[in-house]
Automatic annotation (TrEMBL):
The gene is flhA. Belongs to the FHIPEP (flagella/HR/invasion proteins export pore) family. Its main location: membrane. This is Flagellar biosynthesis protein FlhA. The keyword Transcription does not apply. NCBIfam families: FlhA. It comes from Christensenella tenuis.
Length: 679
């Protein structure tokens, strides 16, 4: 077993032995020095961590240090009362130094230290730990939902989302543990006071009953000095650990340690040093105050302010010159080539004037980075190569409006507010928050725009909050998924085929172009994307087409064969828990659809009457509303023969309806019917 694994067990064993076994004064001296050293080390550690979780072992360490200190208190009390006040050199040195020849002064100083430890540091640390734990736990649901929003928008991947969820859980565990550990610090302070009283009273009783004729004042001095020394040796480390507790629970996440943060934040405001210097000079004119030290300190503070101002000007000047150079270069820029405006972009976003800061990195905008993540997420989720997304400003739009265009035509639009967050209502909302009522642009859900400063309040009330860039990113992601088939060009199909050829050259040579052209492959892939089926598994898709291509040329029918080959991916995508709640078709309706399916040169269609269509639509709408009320995504399950025809029938009324056949579900999927559609 490694030394690290046995260290804590050894410390706990020492604490137990301290309580049971008597110690010689020399050994107690060594342990007291170790206690002071470890407490100082813990205090230094808390000053240099960047965030609380960097010292996640602190709650357990706090408990062990408290028990170790109590064990030393018991050992020192045993020596003081049983050894005539002689408890070692460390306690004697601290007691003599504190009293300084005057017993009353020493007692007063010792009492002041105890009051500071108990009333100020310990009480404050306990309160901060309690509040931090409560707010951290209350904010957990909102933080979890924010992570889900970033994941859905493509800003982070699944691994990053997992790491952030684990960090949130660790924060909650840490602050909860700190809330409990702070109670030990408070108890330690109370025990320190009780031990002090016991040492003095017990020492006086023992000295008086010894029968050796020692004067009472000598007994009082001996035991009081030893008690004060013991109390100081115990309370000073306790004071350092309590201070460390207060620092660690008030430490917010930062890129630097506490020292660098304080220096950077104070030096960012150099003029406050000049104001402070002038105020000190004014204070020096109060009669009776010593002018010399005040003038020295005021001069030093003013000098610091002047040095910081001079350094700040040296930093700002190159920036001004750089901005001037950029402005001059823009003035000399040649007129824009308008022919580039004639090109039709496959996909683009246009922003109103007020949303330009979202793409300006100098103002903290990160929309461009989010767009990059969206393209990557779509490649992983759907297997498509999203073309470059152009972002332009459009003065014809409202200040806070944006539009998403596919092939130059607007397909979606929305409106967001900078310096606000979108608060979405959930089932756990505990109250209503004041803000600007709106509709979430992606899914049409009711929402409220609230100022950024009210974000934490909204999360505590149970709302899910999403910032403006995430709203646009989520809207863009869903728009890409909805129009993925339109974004799949022949050139992109060629890229996908070339990528497959690098690993499966024999398969590609057999199928393309001997059996299928790029256009036919594109049609099959577009059919899959139209129903939100990923095309990442190009090997299985092309292999199925190669197997069926010699006897089947209809791309719609080839799509059905391909869907059957992709049943594992389809099952996991639409039935992730292997339990499908579905709507089925009446056998009579399936027979009717099969009988009235007509084949033409342009493809197949179902020749149903208007009355029959209306009855199907009405019954389907009733079933969909029923499942939506149950919180279930509607899925229609049909026989393979009529799946494609039923999807075509309902695509105009319910374009996003999921229609699957029995052949597209894995054998382990359990199917439960929630309704039957008939005529």
């Amino acid at each position: 077993m490694k030394v690290k694994d046995t260290l804590i067990a050894g410390v706990v064993l020492i604490v137990v032995l301290l309580i049971i076994l008597p110690l010689p004064p020399t050994m107690l001296d060594v342990l007291l020095v170790i206690n002071i050293s470890v407490s100082l080390l813990v205090l230094m550690m808390t000053l240099y961590v960047h965030e609380a979780l960097d010292f996640a072992a602190f709650p357990s360490l706090l408990l062990i240090l408290t028990l170790f200190r109590l064990g030393l208190n018991i050992a020192s009390t045993r020596l003081i009362l049983g050894n005539g006040g002689d408890a070692g050199s460390v306690i004697e040195a601290f007691g003599s130094f504190a009293t300084g020849g005057n017993l009353i002064v020493g007692i007063i100083i010792f009492l002041i230290i105890i009051v500071i430890q108990f009333v100020v540091i310990t009480k404050g640390a306990e309160r901060v730990a309690e509040v931090s734990a409560r707010f951290t736990l209350d904010a957990m649901p909102g933080k979890q939902m924010a992570i889900d929003a970033d994941l859905n928008s493509g800003l982070i991947n699944e691994q990053q989302a997992k790491e952030r969820r684990e960090k949130i859980a660790r924060e909650a565990d840490f602050y909860g543990a700190m809330d409990g550990s702070s109670k030990f610090v408070k108890g330690d302070a109370i025990v320190g006071i009780l031990i002090t009283v016991i040492n003095i009273v017990g020492g006086l009783i023992i000295g008086a009953m010894s029968g050796e004729g020692v004067p009472f004042d000598e007994i009082l001095q001996t035991y009081t000095i030893a008690t004060i020394g013991d109390g100081l040796v115990s309370q000073i480390p306790a004071l350092m650990v309590s201070t460390a507790t207060g620092i660690i629970v008030t430490r917010s996440a930062s890129k630097d340690n506490l020292g660098r943060d304080l220096i950077n934040q104070f030096t960012n405001q150099p003029y406050i040093f000049l104001i402070l210097g002038v105020m000190l000079i004014c204070i020096s004119f109060i009669p009776g105050l010593p002018k010399a030290p005040i003038f020295v300190i005021a001069g030093l503070v003013i000098a610091i302010g002047l040095v910081l101002i001079r350094a700040d000007k040296k930093t700002v000047q190159p920036k001004i010159e750089e901005d001037k150079a950029i402005a001059a270069a823009k003035e000399k820029r040649k007129p824009e080539n308008v022919t580039s405006l004639l090109q039709v972009e496959l996909i683009g976003i246009e922003l109103g004037y007020g949303l330009i800061p979202l793409v300006d990195t100098s103002q903290g905008g990160d929309l461009l980075e989010r767009v990059i993540m969206i393209r990557r997420q779509c490649a992983i989720d759907l297997g498509i190569i999203v073309p470059v997304i152009r972002i332009r400003d459009n003065i014809q739009l409202g200040t806070n409006e944006y539009v998403i265009k596919i092939k130059g035509v607007e397909v979606a639009k929305g409106e967001v507010m900078l310096d606000h967050v979108l608060a979405l209502s959930t089932n756990e909302v505990k109250g209503k928050i004041q803000g600007i009522d709106t509709v979430e642009p992606t899914f049409g859900l009711p929402a409220v725009w609230v100022p950024e400063s009210e974000r934490e309040k909204a999360e505590l009330l149970g709302y899910t909050t999403v910032d403006a860039p995430s709203v646009i990113a989520t809207h863009l992601t869903e728009t890409i998924k909805r129009h993925a088939s339109e974004l799949l060009t022949r050139q992109q199909v060629q890229t996908l085929v070339d990528n497959l050829k690098a690993t499966q050259p024999a398969l590609v040579e057999e199928a393309i172009p001997k059996l299928f052209s790029l256009g036919e492959i594109q049609k099959v892939l577009s059919n899959l994307l139209d129903e939100n089926i990923p095309i990442r598994d190009m090997g299985t898709i092309v292999e199925t087409l190669a197997d069926c291509g010699k006897v089947v040329r209809d791309t719609d029918l080839l799509t059905e064969y391909t869907r059957k080959s992709l049943r594992r991916a389809i099952s996991k995508r639409f039935v992730p828990n292997d339990k499908a709640r579905v709507i089925t078709l009446d056998p009579a309706l399936e027979n009717l659809i099969a009988e009235k399916t007509k084949q033409t040169e342009q493809g197949t269609y179902v020749a149903l009457s208007q009355d029959e269509l209306q009855r199907i639509y009405g019954h389907l709408q009733e079933m969909i509303e029923k499942m939506n009320q149950l919180g279930i995504t509607p899925i229609v399950l049909t026989s393979p023969l009529v799946r494609r025809q039923f999807k075509n029938i309902t695509s105009t009324m319910v374009p996003d309806l999921i229609v699957l056949s029995y052949n597209e579900l894995e054998n382990n999927v359990e199917v439960f019917s929630d309704g039957v559609i008939g005529l």
